[in-house]
Design the sequence.
C-alpha cells in the first residue's frame, strides 16, 4: 500500500518550518531579555507574533507526527485488507487537514484574520434587484452559520412592499460577519453578482436579469483607529431617526448615526443599536475599514500600472452569475467553478467557490 498525500511536502516548503522555528526561538529569547518590556507597544507585537508562530509550528509538526504514524502503520499492516481501510481513512483525514492549512497560507494579508463587514447594494434591475439583495443577504447569513461565524445586520434601507406576494425589498444592507479569518475567506466575494430568473414582479412571468454589488471590508476595532486612518476634522457626523424594527426608543429618538469622510466622500452608517454612542462607534469602525480598503486598492492599482497590466474598474466586472431560468446554473467567472445545484448555493453552500478563489492565490 502506498501513501498518497498530495500536500505532504508542504511542511518542508510552503509551511517554511525551519525559518519559523528560528524566528520563534529568537522572539522567545527577546521576550526574556531585561528591559524588553520597557517598550510596551513593541513587546506586545512581538508576543503576538510569537504566539502566532508557536501555533503554526505546533500545527505543522502535528501533521508530521500523523504522517509518520501512518507510514509506520503501512509498514506494519500495509498488506492487511482489514486494516487497509482504516489506514486509507487516516490518510484522507490528514490530506484534508493539510489542504485546509495550505489554503490558510493564502490568508496572509494584513487584515485577513479580522471579522468582515459585507455591504450589498441593489444595482440594475429595479424591484428584482432589490429582491436579489434579500436573497444574497440570506445566502451570506447561512454561509456564516455553516462556517461557525456570528452575524448581525448593522444598517439596511427597505423598499415598500410590492409584487404578487407583497414582499419587501432591500435597497442596501450592511452586515457584520464576526469570527477569525471571516474577512480572509469572504474578501473575494466583492464584485457584481448577476441573477437571471422568471421575475416574481412580472404579471407575464417574464425572464429578468438583475444585479447587486457586494463589497467586503475588514472590521477595524475602535481601539485600532488612529489619526493616520481617520482625522476628526475630516469627518462629518449626522444623526437621524432609525427606520424599521427596534422599539420606540430607536424610532422616536435620533439614535442612528451617519458619518461622511469628507476627503473621499465615503459614507458609513449604523442604526441597529438603541444608543447613539454605540451606533457611532460601529459606524466609525466600518468607515475605517472602507478607508483602509480604498488605500489597499489604490496601492494595488499603482503596482499594476507600474507593471503595465490592465486594471479592472472597481466592481465593474461580473464575478458570479446565478441562473434560475431557463436552466439552473451558478458560475464563478474568475475560476470557472460552476454547479447546477442553485438552491444549495442560495442556502449558503458557497465554500467551493471561496476555496477555488483562495487556491488561485496560494
Sequence:
Amino acid at each position: 500500500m502506498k501513501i498518497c498525500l498530495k500536500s505532504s511536502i508542504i511542511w518542508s516548503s510552503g509551511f517554511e518550518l525551519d525559518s519559523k522555528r528560528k524566528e520563534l526561538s529568537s522572539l522567545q529569547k527577546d521576550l526574556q531579555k531585561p528591559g524588553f518590556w520597557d517598550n510596551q507597544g513593541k513587546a506586545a507585537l512581538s508576543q503576538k507574533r510569537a504566539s502566532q508562530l508557536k501555533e503554526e509550528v505546533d500545527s505543522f509538526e502535528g501533521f508530521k507526527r500523523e504522517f509518520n504514524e501512518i507510514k509506520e502503520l503501512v509498514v506494519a499492516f500495509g498488506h492487511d485488507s482489514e486494516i487497509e481501510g482504516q489506514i486509507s481513512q487516516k490518510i484522507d483525514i490528514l490530506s484534508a487537514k493539510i489542504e485546509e492549512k495550505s489554503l490558510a497560507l493564502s490568508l496572509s494579508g494584513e487584515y485577513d484574520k479580522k471579522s468582515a463587514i459585507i455591504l450589498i447594494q441593489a444595482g440594475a434591475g429595479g424591484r428584482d434587484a432589490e429582491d436579489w439583495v434579500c436573497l444574497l443577504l440570506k445566502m451570506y447569513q447561512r454561509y456564516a452559520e455553516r462556517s461557525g461565524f456570528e452575524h448581525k445586520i448593522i444598517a439596511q434601507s427597505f423598499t415598500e412592499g410590492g409584487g404578487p406576494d407583497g414582499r419587501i425589498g432591500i435597497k442596501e444592507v450592511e452586515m457584520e460577519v464576526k469570527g477569525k479569518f471571516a474577512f480572509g475567506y469572504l474578501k473575494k466575494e466583492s464584485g457584481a453578482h448577476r441573477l437571471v430568473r422568471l421575475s416574481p414582479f412580472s404579471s407575464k412571468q417574464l425572464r429578468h436579469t438583475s444585479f447587486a454589488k457586494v463589497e467586503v471590508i475588514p472590521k477595524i476595532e475602535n481601539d485600532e483607529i488612529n489619526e493616520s486612518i481617520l482625522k476628526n476634522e475630516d469627518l462629518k457626523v449626522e444623526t437621524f431617526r432609525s427606520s424599521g424594527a427596534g422599539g420606540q426608543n430607536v424610532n422616536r429618538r435620533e439614535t442612528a448615526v451617519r458619518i461622511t469622510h469628507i476627503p473621499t466622500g465615503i459614507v458609513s452608517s449604523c442604526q441597529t443599536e438603541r444608543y447613539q454612542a454605540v451606533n457611532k462607534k460601529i459606524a466609525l469602525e466600518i468607515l475605517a475599514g472602507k478607508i483602509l480598503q480604498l488605500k489597499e486598492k489604490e496601492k494595488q492599482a499603482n503596482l499594476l500600472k507600474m507593471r503595465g497590466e490592465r486594471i479592472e474598474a472597481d466592481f465593474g466586472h461580473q464575478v458570479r452569475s446565478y441562473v434560475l431560468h431557463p436552466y439552473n446554473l451558478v458560475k464563478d467567472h474568475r475560476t470557472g467553478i460552476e454547479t447546477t445545484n442553485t438552491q444549495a448555493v442560495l442556502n449558503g453552500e458557497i465554500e467551493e467557490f471561496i476555496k477555488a478563489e483562495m487556491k488561485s492565490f496560494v
Notes: The chain has a mean pLDDT of 83.
